Amino acid sequence: MKLSENKVEYEKSSVELSIILPVYNVEKYLEKCLETMLNQKYQNFELIIVNDGTKDNSEEIILKYANDTRYMSKIKYIKKENGGLSDARNYGYKEAEGKYVTFFDSDDYISEYMYLNIMKKVKEFNYDVIVSDLYMEYEDINSKNNSKNGSFNKLVYVSSNVKSDNKNLSLEDKKELLKNMYIAVHNKIYKKEVIDRVFGDIPFIKGMLYEDICFTYKLIPNINSIARVEEPLYYYMQREGSISNTYSDKLNDILKSIEIIETYYKENKDGEYYLLEKYKDEIEYITVRYYFGTYMQRLAKAKNLKKYILGYKNVKKYINNKYKNYKNNTYLKKAKGIKNKLLKIYNLPIAILIYILETNKELSLNIRKIIKL
To answer: From 3.40.50.2300, 3.30.450.30, 3.90.550.10, 3.40.50.880, which CATH number describes the 8-245 domain?
Structure first.
């Protein structure tokens, strides 16, 4: 292997799986991430590491592994100017040679059996997507040494919400996936030819946060099969400073993502019918859930009640104007589970309750465990 300014040249080989790993300022977590990935029980993969202009010592850690004779034949290393997570994923995707691809987060880690168990499903059938369950691993907020050693110890099991292996997805099956499936990409592998067909070689929208929303909801109507490994094999770190645990000025990208999905379903057909004709109830439900739920939950992290109430008024106005009869939505009418019940009757007191929970992490975590919110 030979190093160049922007790329590590590699020895080409036939691989089944391409793992795409963007890296940006994760020196505390990167070594554990790489160790668990490179020492998998399954070994027929390539690891595409994209240095997205990191400013810490992450590159030093990357090069330690890229120059290790045990791993160098597996690693492709790309160095680029900072362009954000979506841009880094797209760079990596263009280099991918595997039949299947996966997108990994560099502050997370995995079970040594993750890809072995997932690829067993591929041996059984040529599934378009294979998912695993996962753990969310929460920072120990009571640990005095937490900021120094990155101590995490609270595990919360998260289901992929894929019912079972399905070799021939029906319309109703896809509706179920749209409504329920855990949408993040990190616990899944995808058949590359399916991504190519739907997105070309640019699967993610550059410059947008919450990129998994657009990717997953565009992909679901275009897949024909899916399988589930019913084990928590991915460890998704909930750390201070991560996108999912802090307020960002880019929060409105959640709302933009949903608008992009609405437009995609309006303009694209499946057979004779536009996608929106087939999935009207699902798109309405997703929109309500992201506006009232995800967006408001993240907005609370700004810890600015005035801004939060203004946000509440804006999303309420949008939903009332665009989906006047949303309370009659198929899924909200059934109102199974506390989340759906809260969405159906969503009002300012409920919004304030969410604000209180989101601004008190320990209280929120304990309540979520009790009621599985």
So the answer is: 3.90.550.10
